[in-house]
């Protein structure tokens, strides 16, 4: 692939993997970010996921925007790229000032959404996004007001789909009911922390600050019943499945997961894959889109190979019954 355009001579099958751009422009420099984006599209990747607040905790000024700027510069440097990818971004979690998060963040009022999304479109250099996420629930704002704000964007043609990240099921369904009643696009996707292992009851993994941020049985049932997509963030436990230098986090340390890891190892041995690849294949088998936030090309390639695996009925049964 050249540095100024995307090779369109081949059209690989569309991958269910989402490329997470969270640390583009902070931990991951522009050159490497472009290489990851190029490889992702070369191999059939479609969805790129970012947010207006990424990655404020890594930036000198304590504000987000770096990730969207990198994606925007990549789109500008790749003629035709916008026709081949779908862009998802989020609003609501940007700190109001350096060090103010999580107590003081933009939130999901009508004005906050309008202002934040205008900034996102400017940084991305796009006239619309394919999916706009309500990033973290805002109990200070009626969910109906947030829905009305998104409806303005849908009516203007700047938003194609609506999603909710880190929201409880009841708030999502209340938002969907309001959107349906006023004849606008309802939420049809959830973004939550999800992987094969299960956290101990009453705990959350590091990085999941919201009490409803880990995919629960109720949220999964809600999504299945109403045909909502589920996107999974941190599906590979930041590499802990396969990197000996990264132990499995303590919140996953319980007997049930000992059995689940043994099942993953058995299936991985059967098909000649890594633990992480089996986890990705299992998530896809359940209709869940995994989000990869890796910083290296070999990590991206391994994940793309993983989501392309097809586990047979016996392998899925072994994974599903290991509790």
TrEMBL record:
Domain NADP-dependent oxidoreductase stretches: 16-322
Family matches, as Pfam families: Aldo_ket_red (PF00248)
Cellular component annotations (GO), alphabetically ordered: cytosol
UniProt protein name: Aldo/keto reductase
Native source organism of the sequence: Micromonospora zingiberis
Phylogenetic classification of the source organism: Bacteria, Bacillati, Actinomycetota, Actinomycetes, Micromonosporales
